[in-house]
Amino acid sequence: MTILDKIIERKKIEVAEAKSKTSLQQLEQFPLFSRPCYSLKESIENPLRTGIIAEYKRASPSKGIINNSSTVQEVVEGYQIAGASAISVLTDRDFFQGSLADLSNAREVLQIPLLRKEFIVDSYQIAEAKAYGADIILLIAACLTPEEVQSLSNYAKSLGLNVLLEVHNEEELQHNIFDSIDAIGVNNRNLKNFTVSLDHSYDLVNKIPDQFIKVSESGISDPSTIMDLRKRGFQSFLIGENFMKTMAPGEAMQDFVKQLAG
What we know:
Layout: H1 3-21, H2 24-27, H3 40-45, E1 52-56, E2 59-60, E3 64-65, H4 72-82, E4 86-90, H5 100-109, E5 114-117, H6 123-131, E6 136-140, H7 146-158, E7 162-167, H8 170-174, E8 183-187, H9 199-204, E9 213-217, H10 223-232, E10 236-239, H11 241-244, H12 249-261
Parallel strand pairs: 1-4, 1-10, 4-5, 5-6, 6-7, 7-8, 8-9, 9-10
Antiparallel strand pairs: 2-3
Helix pairs in contact: 4-5, 4-12, 10-12
């Protein structure tokens, strides 16, 4: 069993437990459920922002604890000030030590799009994302069928959410091109063994149709890498560990952005 298999198996149990505690109808009554979502595309294209989707992540299966001292609000506010185009917050509890409370806490201090970074296997999790303040949901092609990607993305769009599809190879990309998707992210991290290679992004950038925002995810730790990815056609870059492994992630991002501008 790969780490991804274990996560998905656990996720199905977790969703069943959540449904037994809070019904879909109850989620729809949450105050944040009816708020209009920020546009990911508009934020990425805003010249005053950097294209960076900055991530709040306490831990990961491959690294263990990354940062459990910086609070979600201080980190994401720092990212916003530093010029992030969007914020990603991990909500998986068992493998990444995140929670839905992290999402709603982040929402309180943000005026830019917020991504619920989660392993989505059920439309219920999309309703949760909306109820807790997300603007964007993530669908991972490696753990969904194309039919599920289409169905889940259609549901997300019906709630006004932005959809980021994550792929790892050309086969996943070609099987999951739907109009209900806003952005396609190429994860440079192999979710089966957690090795990282930017070749994933370089191989796929020209195969992603231009109607989608092109995002390179993971393994980005140098401003020169972003400059290179931009030249090749990427408009957005998801960065988490590089900032989170420091004592002050917001300040680390500010320094990174200064180098990017310089």
